[in-house]
Design goal:
120 residues; Rossmann fold; five-stranded parallel sheet; 5 helices; 5 strands
Length: 120
């Protein structure tokens, strides 16, 4: 199974996503900020990053841009309540994210995207 770094400052969402992914056998590290994410990237070496867009400090778009500059092969799944198609498209274009999942989400949709992004 995959090693996943999950970045989200919402405790309820973080607990839910962690539970879902651990039940499927994935190893997950959950952090609350982009700063913690950057620190953990070097030591954890994840197979996938799931990145919330709206967080205090460095937002998920800028954090994903930085990740993609230093780790272009590392897939990033953007994760947000943002739903406007043009907003999503623009966020993915600017950040370089590999995919997007909206909140709220269905369990199976999360698992399907994680599987697709980690199997390559």
């Amino acid at each position: 199974m995959a090693k996943i770094l999950f970045v989200d400052d919402e405790p309820d969402i973080g607990l839910l996503v962690t539970k879902i992914l651990e039940e499927e056998g994935h190893e997950i590290r959950w952090v609350f900020s982009a700063r913690e994410c950057f620190r953990l990237l070097r030591e954890y070496r994840p197979d996938l990053v799931i990145m919330d867009i709206f967080m205090p400090g460095t937002n998920g778009i800028e954090a994903t841009r930085r990740i993609k500059r230093s780790h272009p092969e590392l897939p990033v799944l953007m994760f947000s309540i943002m739903y406007g198609a043009s907003d999503i498209e623009e966020a993915m274009r600017i950040s370089g994210a590999d995919d997007f999942l909206g909140k709220p989400f269905e369990r199976e949709e999360l698992l399907e995207r994680v599987e697709r992004l980690t199997r390559s």
